[in-house]
């Protein structure tokens, strides 16, 4: 109980520091509130299911049409959706688990799922999943829904990170697309001028900063459970070295992923680390810019690595589980997952949806599709919000020149050890 109360407080504090976006960095508008309007009027005896989510824009429109379709295709269940900005939705979960006022179905950012499962917000649906013919998900996304021996939701969307590069800048500088850390540093040096930085990343002091750091950590052979290891320190030292040499702006400690995208779109950086959700923003902000996408460069003696982002949906405690399962399993099944990929450019977490086929004529998304199967979840751990805080705090301290790598990561590991022993 003490652990749950402590986690409740940690989540409430973390919510206050988050930008209005998921780990994917999608911007959320509080004025864009999608509503589902079924052509059928609620009939007496129809079971009502409340569904909370934080998707706006294209994704919100897709969800609204999906809810309306589900309501029209059968007469037993009526789903009513409610849009809440991400930070407000997370806050309502922590309030609702105490008050008993939770929706039947709720959306959650995948690194947070373990924490909310431990708090008792979501129901264990493992037995339903095990008997479902549509149970075909990639290991990474599905693992984000697992807590101890239970399954507390299903993956709905997935994304990862890649290297965006300005083709004209690379050509002018005589630079090939870098694939290793050494190649990336050499390329960044040639691409950096008085007005342009070679590379941009987000190292802001919240989950986005941790999200962007994870691929470097994993590629070096480091681990979030061993931040004080030589491998982990190698990854942090490498990135700080790029800042020290001026190839990466010192301002990255203040940049969200959306800020990084703006820098790249405006031609102020030659390369950036970002995700597929930025492709639509690039089309709007820089429709004439010719750019490509490659994998995040790997450590010279390491492997390619990326990090899993995306959303899950779960059945909340106290819900009508049978009715909610009918909706959740329908929403995450192959057909709807394929439709979401086509409509919003997302990546499916399912093994029976082929993104290479869907994006065969889209080389930018095809690169992300190639990376997706090996993208690693953050955690999964019910303590992830606290672990992430320790990691991005250390990164901020190093990049701002407040502490050296050894001191910052040793202290981060001490915090993580204390979290794991509580």
Defining key terms:
alpha/beta, 422 residues, D-Maltodextrin-Binding Protein, domain 2, 11 strands, 12% strand, 2 domains
Structure write-up:
The protein is an alpha/beta fold and 422 residues long. The chain has two domains: 2-159 and 309-374, 3-Layer(aba) Sandwich (D-Maltodextrin-Binding Protein, domain 2); 162-307 and 383-421, D-Maltodextrin-Binding Protein, domain 2 (3-Layer(aba) Sandwich). The chain is 46% helix and 12% strand. It has 18 helices and eleven strands. The strands form three sheets. It has a five-stranded mixed β-sheet with strand order 2-1-3-11-6, with helices on both faces. Strands 8-9-7-10 form a four-stranded mixed β-sheet. It has a two-stranded antiparallel ribbon with strand order 4-5. A hairpin with a 2-residue loop joins strand 4 and strand 5 (150-151). The protein is globular and about 70 Å long. The N and C termini lie close together (11 Å). Residues 12-39 have low confidence and may be disordered.
Question: What's the β-strand tally?
Answer: 11
Total tally of structural domains: 2
CATH superfamily of the largest domain: Periplasmic binding protein-like II
Output the CATH class name of the largest domain.
Answer: Alpha Beta
Major sheet description: 5 strands, mixed
Distance between the termini: 11 Å
Coarse morphology = globular
Class per helix and strand makeup:
alpha/beta
Describe the strand arrangement of the main beta sheet, using strand numbers.
2-1-3-11-6
What is the rounded Rg?
21 Å
Low-confidence stretches: 12-39
CATH topology of the largest domain: D-Maltodextrin-Binding Protein, domain 2
CATH architecture type of the largest domain: 3-Layer(aba) Sandwich
SSE pattern, N- to C-terminal: HEHEHEHHHEEEEHHEHHHEHEEHHHHHH
Mean pLDDT: 90
